[in-house]
Design brief:
By secondary structure, the protein is mainly α. The protein contains 1 helix and no strands. The protein starts with a helix and ends in a 12-residue tail after the last helix. The model has no long low-confidence stretch (mean pLDDT 89).
């Protein structure tokens, strides 16, 4: 009886160790995805800010209605 209990505990421990390894792998992949998204976000933010700066340099009224109104 004691032998069976020990085997069951060892089996559970082995499964838990495997689950921890799997979860760690998922967390690492998610961290890489987050870093990639952050880099993309920073590039887009920079691009939008540059475009906004270029648009402010264009002459002409910003709220002028088109001639067909």
């Amino acid at each position: 009886m004691e032998e069976n209990r020990l085997i069951e505990i060892e089996t559970r421990l082995a499964y838990q160790e495997q689950i921890i390894r799997d979860l760690n792998e998922v967390v690492c992949e998610q961290q890489q995805a987050i870093e990639t998204l952050e880099k993309g976000y920073k590039r887009l933010t920079k691009l939008v800010n540059e475009q906004a700066g270029m648009n402010s340099e264009i002459e002409g009224p910003a709220n002028e209605k088109p001639p067909h109104y």
